[in-house]
Design brief:
Length: 346
Amino acid sequence: MKIGIHHREGSYSERWIEYCQEHRIDYKIVNAYDSNIVDQLSDCDIFMWHHHQANYKDALFAKQLLFSLEQAGKVVFPDWYTGWHFDDKVGQKYLFEAHNIKLAPSYVFYTKKEAYEWIEKTIFPKVFKLRGGASSSNVMLAKNKREAKYLVNKSFSRGWKYFSGVRYFIGRLKSFKNGKMSLFKVIKGFGRIFIEPSMTKMMPKQKGYVYFQEFIPNEGFDYRIEICGDKCTAWVRYVRKNDFRASGGHDNHAEKELIPQDVLRFAFDITDKLKLQAAALDIVRHKETGELFLIENSYCYGADDDEFEHGYWDKDGVFHDEKFNGFDWMIENVIHQYLKVRGIVE
């Protein structure tokens, strides 16, 4: 068995390489951007690539390359089931609805006329989202018809840049005021108003559609469940002060008493139904009915300094109070998948 790994500084690949070295697993570093990447992987059984949603090169071909290799018989991470809907909230709407997963009711329109007609009949507030973007960067609240029509007009005219320095700075400023971010990071965020990250400069504008979700009344927090195989890490994320969003607010709490068993079951049921190698699920509970709703999903999860320090849950709902490494779970999962395909394990 040999693993091919595309290496990017600051990505999961750093830990994947260390893991292979520690466990004496045969691996090679490859460059997914090379035209001969398929040839580079000819002697590999597994290919792993932590591709990034805001890198225009990755957005152009990562999913296509991974699926091509998977179709040719290699085990890949993320595989097609896990990764095709990554950073695509519109795609996730169709996927979750097709599997009867309880998604926050969502609406997508591909003409301005249809969107306007819906606005006249619906009630507010509604959550407006672009199909791509992380940490709530492209999520806004339309509190009334006027605000919704503004969002629609922009979506069908000049469109939206994938990265907004102004929205980025405002988010960091709010986190600073809430004591969740350093002044240094706020100053760096201010600089993004004038200097856009090089990764996003080539990303196309998002336009020609609008996507809205129902705002689910809640108790001021959501659940973040990150699953790989039969293990997960979980915590509560409180919304930002004077805001409606939890993602990106950095007010996270992982005490096991805060994580209900029905939330864990709901999350594991989703990953099983969708056949996901890994998932980072955003889940919210309706404060009146108690119903759980899935908001969105990603194949990858972050790694704050203490994220892997607070213990993990298994699929039976048992809490394990010990340190772990969620990136190790990924490589262990694909190795098991390879051995299973080869009939070595069940």
